[in-house]
Design goal:
Blueprint (H helix, E strand, L loop, with lengths): L12 H10 L1 E4 L1 H5 L6 H13 L4 E2 L2 H37 L9 H27 L5 H9 L10 H16 L18 H5 L3 H16 L3 E4 L8 E4 L2 E5 L1 H11 L3 E4 L1 H11 L6 H13 L6 H7 L14 H9 L1 E2 L4 H12 L10 E2 L4 H40 L16 H30 L7
Parallel strand pairs: 1-2, 1-3, 3-6, 7-8
Antiparallel strand pairs: 4-5
InterPro entries: PIN_8
Protein name: PIN like domain-containing protein
Organism: Pseudomonas syringae pv. tagetis
């Protein structure tokens, strides 16, 4: 059965050993572009691993083309991100500056805060300048160019590309991976380059198959893309490489094929090279993937990639977790497809089909609107509360200053202690501050997907 349906069985230990010993290591476009999103230490660590494995690295022509076409956009995005952080830093600092003469906070402590803010500002400015400089003098592009010299595949002529568009349309209509999730890219444009946008992943896949077949090499494909047209997904969680990809590679090339997300690849490559991978780098890679919309769900991979980093199969899946998922709403479109896939992987015929709860696919659109509305509401509430707090801070500071800097005196020359009014102001400011902090945390949790009840 395994030889007939290789996509539904994990790679053997022997296959994985062979893959790491001599298989081609092919990098997706997002792996290269994300180098601009990492800190220097993480970028250096990943580039170092790529260099050490450079004799086995290869990239499709489409990957090189997408990287060179999109790198300036990513550089610009990172520069804007630095600008946003600088603005946030200034916004956070402003209320403190209005209270510099507060009698209960020493001038020394205020100065220390100023020094910290200045260090943060300088570091952010330096990071922004580095990214801006890459527009004209790009160290990442130069490093990759040196590593990948002679390791980039050939492109296609116009006639071949037109045929790929026709074939791709048929594949996408049948939901044959990869790339069918990109079907709306390019719109209705008649230009060839625009019509090809939706078929980028399919072109990458074709070039992988062609090169591997000609070279007679097994393949490790590293990607930051976790959409269901590359992977088998389970209620939004990434479980294993898509079975149809494994089968197509086996039929075309006749050799093993495996895929890794970047963090797992870093970890596994470290073991292969007998070099421990930095935990900070792994955390950063996961964060970047999460915030780029390519979330690697730790729970899923915790069960899907055990010590040998194989697929997730019956003896490796926690059935209690899967049953819990079955008891919840599923975003998958077809009950039959999901049940068939689950039985193929888990081999558990005792699960009741009545446990499957299904949403109309359009529910996903409604959910996105609800999520967008909630985020806007949270942000608006935070802005309004911050404005109210700033106003109260100003009144409080004015009262303190007009009373000669003494908290127990009120303005107007009246030396009678009337501390209650100031206390009420301070209490209200404290309440608002706590509420703002709670809302900011709720917003952050919401954005990170921590609040699962909203997913």
């Amino acid at each position: 059965m395994k030889s007939a349906f290789p996509g539904y069985f994990s790679n053997s230990t022997e296959n994985l050993s062979q893959l790491w010993a001599s298989g081609l290591i092919i990098l997706d476009t997002n792996v290269l572009l994300n180098l601009y999103r990492y800190s220097d230490s993480t970028k250096t660590e990943l580039l170092g691993i790529i260099k050490k494995l450079s004799d086995r690295i290869w990239i499709p022509n489409q990957v090189a083309k997408e990287f060179l076409s999109n790198r300036l956009t990513v550089i610009g995005e990172q520069s804007e991100l630095y600008k946003s952080h600088l603005a946030s830093l200034q916004e956070f600092k402003r209320p403190l500056e209005s209270q510099k003469k507060h009698p209960f906070i020493s001038e020394k402590l205020f100065n220390e805060c100023d020094n910290i803010f200045e260090k943060l500002r300088l570091e952010l400015e330096a990071g922004k300048n580095i990214h801006d400089d890459r527009i004209n003098s790009d160290d990442i592009k130069d490093d990759l160019s040196a590593i990948l010299e002679g390791k980039v595949g050939n492109g296609y002529n116009k006639e071949t590309l037109e045929k790929i568009i026709m074939d791709g349309e048929l594949r996408y209509g049948e939901k044959i991976p990869p790339g069918f999730k990109d079907i709306k890219k390019g719109g209705d444009s008649k230009l060839l380059n625009d019509r090809l946008l939706k078929y980028g992943d399919y072109i990458i896949w074709l070039q992988i198959l062609e090169h591997s077949k000609n070279d007679k090499r097994s393949v490790i494909f590293v990607t930051g893309d976790v959409k269901e047209d590359w992977w088998l997904t389970f209620n939004g969680k990434t479980i294993a490489p898509h079975p149809l990809l494994v089968e197509e590679f086996s039929e075309t090339v006749g050799l093993p094929f495996h895929m890794y997300p970047v963090d797992i690849f870093l970890e596994r490559a470290g073991l292969h090279l007998k070099k421990k991978t930095s935990e900070d780098s792994l955390k950063e890679v996961r964060e970047v993937q999460k915030h780029e919309g390519n979330a690697i769900l730790d729970i899923a991979f915790g069960h899907a990639w055990p010590n040998e980093f194989g697929h997730a199969w019956p003896n490796e899946i926690d059935h209690a977790i899967l049953q819990e998922v079955l008891d919840s709403d599923s975003m998958m479109a077809s009950r039959a497809d999901f049940y068939e896939n689950y039985m193929a992987y888990a081999g558990n015929d005792d699960l009741e089909t009545s446990k499957f709860n299904w949403k109309d696919p359009t529910g996903k659109i409604t959910l996105q609107k609800e999520k967008s509305h909630k985020e806007k509401t949270l942000r608006k509430t935070i802005i309004n509360l911050t404005a109210e707090k700033d106003e109260l801070d100003a009144i409080h500071s004015s009262l303190i200053n007009m009373s000669g800097g003494h908290r127990h005196l009120l303005p107007g020359g009246d030396s009678t202690p009337r501390i209650e009014k100031i206390r009420m102001l301070e209490k209200r400011v404290g309440e608002i501050t706590k509420r703002i902090m709670r809302l900011r945390q709720e917003l952050q949790d919401f954005r990170d997907g921590i609040n699962e009840s909203e997913l």
